[in-house]
């Protein structure tokens, strides 16, 4: 197995960091890997905000569902889908551009997330751990103000980085669903009730159906029905108003 495959298979999220700074050269390498990711038409419809100000880190930590490890990370990168640069270039050259639409937004989000994953993989290869923070999608009004995001700039994700503690390295990587459930040939295959049960029981190592049902109910309340999930939907609906 080559090293790239090994690292992709082994990589896991890191949420507790050593008190060790990331060297500037390593940060630059990670950023170079991010911007060398593919992007639609090589348009690079993203902007990466490198958050170095501790006050902003602390505020992000609170705004992203009070996850305190965010403020302790050694490097915080907000990957924004950025169609604004193209819109402005078109405008400045008198092209009278149409409004930016949801298609442009989705493409920009794709570009930004692909760049983010390159950063994550590059960091891991340097021994630097990371964790995506989906909660950056919440609290649109405060996040826009804090990061001074203009319209047509969408904070697709926050990724926090730092050297993992020994405990984080030892922590077992959460099991994935088997390929047989995740890959289908030629066309989409609907999951039936049995298949879903089998898939989740296998992933979670449940011994009986009762364990599965209890877990699913708890998961439903903790994630799908949570206040943060509802806030995320509200917040994104507000962002979408810029594009609709
Ligand atoms: C889009 C996205 C959002 C995430 N948001 C958070 C988050 O807000 N907080 C957190 O602790 N982990 C977050 N994670 C990390 C996942 O929980 C983690 O990737 C998943 O449990 C699999 O574990 P692993 O990365 O260790 O393999 C997020 C991951 C992704 C891809």
Short description:
By secondary structure, the protein is α+β, with helices and mostly antiparallel strands. The chain has helices at 3-10, 24-35, 54-63, 69-72, 84-92, 102-125, 140-147, 166-170, 179-182, 193-204, 209-224, 227-240, and strands spanning 46-51, 75-82, 129-133, 153-162.
CATH architecture of the domain at 3-171: 3-Layer(aba) Sandwich
Pick out the low-confidence regions.
Answer: none
CATH topology of the domain at 3-171: NADH Oxidase
**What is the first-to-last residue Cα distance?**
47 Å
Bound molecules: flavin mononucleotide
Describe this structure in words.
The chain is an alpha+beta fold and 244 residues long. 52% of the residues lie in helices and 12% in strands. It has a domain at 3-171: NADH Oxidase. A 4-stranded antiparallel beta sheet has the order 1-2-4-3. The longest helix has 24 residues, at 102-125. The radius of gyration is 20 Å and the shape is globular. The model has no long low-confidence stretch (mean pLDDT 98). The protein binds flavin mononucleotide. Residues 12-13, 15, 67, 131-135, 157, 173-174 line the site of flavin mononucleotide (FMN). Flavin mononucleotide binds at residues 12-13, 15, 67, 131-135, 157, 173-174.
